From TrEMBL:
InterPro entries: Bact_response_regulator, CheY-like_superfamily, Sig_transdc_resp-reg_receiver. This is Strongly similar to sigma 54 response regulator. The lineage of its organism: Bacteria, Pseudomonadati, Planctomycetota, Candidatus Brocadiia, Candidatus Brocadiales. SUPFAM superfamilies: CheY-like. Residues 3-114 form the Response regulatory domain. PANTHER family: RESPONSE REGULATORY DOMAIN-CONTAINING PROTEIN, STRESS RESPONSE REGULATOR PROTEIN 1. One of its GO terms (biological process) is phosphorelay signal transduction system. Keywords: Phosphoprotein. It comes from the Bacteria.
Length: 159
């Protein structure tokens, strides 16, 4: 699952982004932060695959938050997308998303900065002639195993 942080002061816009992401992508977990200060706390606590941030806040702006993020070891290389209704851009920030947009446009942007095909959550191994015993209502049922899924070794996710 790709963990995405949405940072925006306006609850309606956070909800809209969350709704768009969930409707367009089936492999995301959404975390919300209503302020730059709360976002900084979350940056320190957990790794994100993508950060989507509004441009303006009461106490800061998206560009200042981006620069602060670069000082945090755990998320310093995380793709950072600024959502803006103006066309203005800052040279330090690589990813901008112009509002208004559709869920499909948002999905394409997320997949561009963090391609799900790079992810390998498990290895599939074949075990010919392997058998399993499944208990249903305390009655054993013999079953053949077609494929087994095991956690990938040394899995790292980078986008």
């Amino acid at each position: 699952m790709r963990k995405i942080l949405i940072v925006h002061e306006t609850r309606i816009l956070r909800t809209l982004l969350k709704t768009y992401l969930i409707s367009a992508l089936n492999d995301v977990v959404i975390i919300e932060a209503p302020s730059a200060a709360e976002a900084l706390e979350k940056f320190k606590e957990q790794k994100f695959e993508v950060i989507i941030c509004g441009m303006q806040f009461k106490q800061a702006n998206g560009i200042a938050l981006f620069k602060e993020l670069k000082n945090e070891e755990i998320n310093k290389d995380t793709p950072f997308i600024i959502v803006t209704s103006t066309g203005s851009k800052e040279n330090d920030i690589q990813h901008y998303f112009l509002s208004p947009f559709t869920p499909i446009e948002l999905r394409e942007k997320i997949n561009t900065v963090c391609d799900p095909r790079q992810w390998c959550a498990h290895d599939s191994i074949s075990m010919p002639d392997a058998k399993a015993i499944i208990h249903v209502n305390n009655d054993p049922i013999d079953a053949g195993i077609i494929n087994a899924i095991t956690p990938a070794q040394n899995l790292t996710t980078t986008c």
